[in-house]
From TrEMBL, chains A, B, C:
Organism lineage string: Bacteria, Bacillati, Cyanobacteriota, Cyanophyceae, Nodosilineales
SUPFAM superfamilies assigned: Aspartate/ornithine carbamoyltransferase (SSF53671)
Recorded name of the encoding gene: pyrB
Quaternary context: Heterododecamer (2C3:3R2) of six catalytic PyrB chains organized as two trimers (C3), and six regulatory PyrI chains organized as three dimers (R2).
Name of the protein this chain belongs to: Aspartate carbamoyltransferase
Chain positions recorded as carbamoyl phosphate binding sites: 61-62, 111, 144, 147, 295-296
Reactions mediated catalytically: carbamoyl phosphate + L-aspartate = N-carbamoyl-L-aspartate + phosphate + H(+)
Residue ranges of domain Aspartate/ornithine carbamoyltransferase carbamoyl-P binding in the record: 9-155
Length: 338, 338, 338
């Protein structure tokens, strides 16, 4: 499983990930998926190492997924909970991180409501030559790389269960529907999916997907060992039906209730009427189309309950399952960087 | 320790437990009690398996007991905490459970303030052939089977320390005093104790023990391999003294302060005067009488402080200790069902 | 590592610690520091034992430090969280402690906002011959022995990295600056540092260091095998500059914001102007002077940011690192008392 081509100490965003990076993650996750199917599901890969979960923004689902991944790798885990912490006593976030560093932390998994916090901590950790690796578990509306990577693994493993490979995504049409503007999940998925050669179609009302949105993705792609796509194939739609035509994967994003109070949406019902995924609307997609959602789902809003529960259509449980193997892969890869 | 006679994947209530089920639990708990007396207190029984504590209703005591039981069985543990969870974001309870299933959970320990939630989750887990076992750790006023089973173990181990057996309960008189109406502990104990041949006497003011209370327990008992008592020996008292006569065990229930604001009780002091267990009132009991309480105790309300602290009389610490061994037994038994 | 001279089952305060006790802690911590530098950082010393963290006063930093120490010793850990606990249901603190005892706890680490709580629990645990050891992790304004012991280790390891010894503290000048009156850290450090032969200088405005403060430390020192200093060398200052002259170590204490609302201080800025540690003010100290702080720090109040971040001057990260080794030593020592 050792991969000499991996040299990233931190995973903060997918902006500069190369196709080779993605493929390394897929292969490593696939080998951990195999470990998880055994009776003894543990490997001693990170024995004696300390992984600290710094979740400044509370989360049960993502924290549990990382916690289980860390346990499967035999690491020791410390959980920082902001509720009862030194932050309330005036300590800076950097000092909190340095305290956990001084205790012996090797890897930090960081979630924060403000974009950029994991990057700032990573820069400081490098500046002082700490040797600590940082994994961004979601920062504001910026990035959620482990989610996009587990989504990538889920899609590639759906296309080829035995040997998930990014090449299978070439030319596939992926539709992302929902609150694109405020979604770190969408942003990270746009970087990964376009870099792997998929065609990405974004769908939302204009309040959640303004015209200028694509600007951020127009910078030149950095080169890896494989030549990346010359131009990202990324499209914007303000109506659902035309976007869904011939789609291979439809990813619905979570709609946050506060978008209503911000007057960005009239009502959940109105949203569902125009952008909710229903069985009927899937008619125009490829016959093999699959539905995805990062969770937690508002049933009957982003998609109907019967789609969510249809094992032929919904990849939602597989996304969660892939999450553990993918996060094991990420912790393993950055944990091995000297 | 393997028991081929056990076939329950879930433990949701004790209504349909057979004497043979109870005896299997007792024997398994006794063997784990022996494990806990060794220097190395762990067994690899559930190594690699994931036990998730879904405690929608917060609890420190019961969660700690289950957590220690799971650690002793070498399982990996995930703790779901409702405070910072997806539930606040509109996710359904079933979707929360399915998320933990998809992560790789093998057993779920569920507590919820609403009766029936663990049953609904168990039904869904069976419907989708998940193979997951559910253990009800307390649901509303419905059931708290692990508490009643640890109480059963405590009584039988008091009657015969070396080989706890349900037969020793035959004809024993057990008095349950307190807020019967709202108590899931009382309900589960009534099923187990009457099924094992004990005589159960319920005592409370009429507001906490209405006339119709017994109706729920009048359904025919399902038959197991041993013939169950033809009629449950279950009695209601509205006065304490006559009930205590010749009692073998007196179990006081926790009185919740909100019963006062609901006008079901005049005051804690008035309650203690009529229904509080005191040394004087125990005069009429058997000389070997023992006191029990599921905890946490309001000292001076349900029972006097000196009784609580009298190691000759109080089984309260033994109940807590038996809790770990009994919960190990339950997790082990349902974890072994294919 | 076994030390036959250690006989304390509890560590509640340092008042009666002998020089030999301190030296045993230093030696044991030094050997665990060596363990922590290995690739496999665990020892099986407390395998099968249960350590319960009873943190009635919430704390993330200290709890994490104890948790990691316990994991490194291979103990099982239970965490009691007051937020969702039986305390809210009217249970007494002693009953909470006894519940965890009955579950199988061997060692309890206790923090409480009221002085004396760990002592009361320890007395009860001894009275009932529980065999449980209690470690005070901070009680009100009374004591925080593990902090003072990690401070002692940090100083002695700074003076001689290879073989930390209390003799190196003989005649050293240590200045403690800040909210002395309300600080359990200051109290515990005064006992340890004066007992080891250091000269301790306390500095604060009179509202935070009243004249009578020294009274508490004037009782005769109990004798150990080495003759302790006949008189504690302990001095009070109400001005910073004269105190700092020729200082070897300057320990700044955390200033709590509520001291302002209590009218004990005009403002943070005024405090910093008179008592804040700055590079300029360190001119009068020994050239080898080091800065310490128990954390969390209010940068720019107790000390300037640049001092905090100067690895030549600040021992703050080393204090945190020493904390894990020192707490391993304390748990190991009291865990070995029969």
């Amino acid at each position: 499983m050792a991969d000499n081509s991996w040299s990233r100490r931190h995973i903060l965003s997918l902006e500069d990930f190369t196709p080779s990076d993605y493929q390394t993650v897929l292969q490593t996750a696939a080998s951990f998926r195999e470990v998880l199917s055994r009776r003894t599901k543990k490997v001693p890969a990170l024995q004696g190492q300390v992984i600290t979960n710094l979740f400044f923004e509370p989360s049960t689902r993502t924290r549990s997924s990382f916690e289980l991944a860390a346990k499967r790798l035999s690491a020791d885990i410390l959980n920082f909970s902001p509720g009862s912490s030194s932050l309330k006593k005036g300590e800076t976030i950097l000092d909190t991180a340095k305290t956990y560093l001084a205790m012996g932390t090797n890897l930090m998994v960081i979630r924060h409501q403000q974009a950029g916090v994991p990057t700032i901590i990573a820069q400081e950790m490098d500046r002082i030559n700490s040797g600590v690796g940082i994994l961004n578990a979601g920062d504001g509306q910026h990035a959620h790389p482990s989610q996009a990577l587990l989504d990538l693994f889920t899609m590639c493993a759906t296309l080829d269960g035995a040997a998930p490979h990014i090449d299978h995504l070439q030319g596939k049409k992926i539709v992302i529907v929902g609150d694109i503007l405020h979604s770190r999940v969408a942003r990270s998925n746009i970087w990964s999916l376009t870099a792997c050669g998929a065609e990405v179609h974004l769908v939302a009302p204009p309040t959640l997907l303004p015209k200028h949105f694509l600007e951020a993705f127009k910078r030149p792609v950095k080169t890896g060992e494989k030549s990346p796509p010359l131009e990202r194939r990324l499209y914007v739609h303000w109506q659902l039906e035309p976007a869904l035509e011939d789609a291979d994967f439809v990813m619905a994003l979570r709609l946050q209730h506060e978008r209503m109070s911000q007057h960005l949406l009239p009502s959940l019902r109105a949203y569902h009427r125009r952008f909710g995924i229903t069985r009927e609307r899937l008619q125009g997609c490829k016959p093999t189309v699959k539905i995805m959602h990062p969770g937690p789902t508002n049933r009957g809003v982003e998609l109907t309950s019967d789609l969510m529960d249809d094992p032929e259509l919904s990849l939602v449980p597989m996304q969660v399952t892939s999450g553990v193997a993918t996060r094991m892969a990420l912790l393993y890869l950055i944990g091995g960087v000297k």
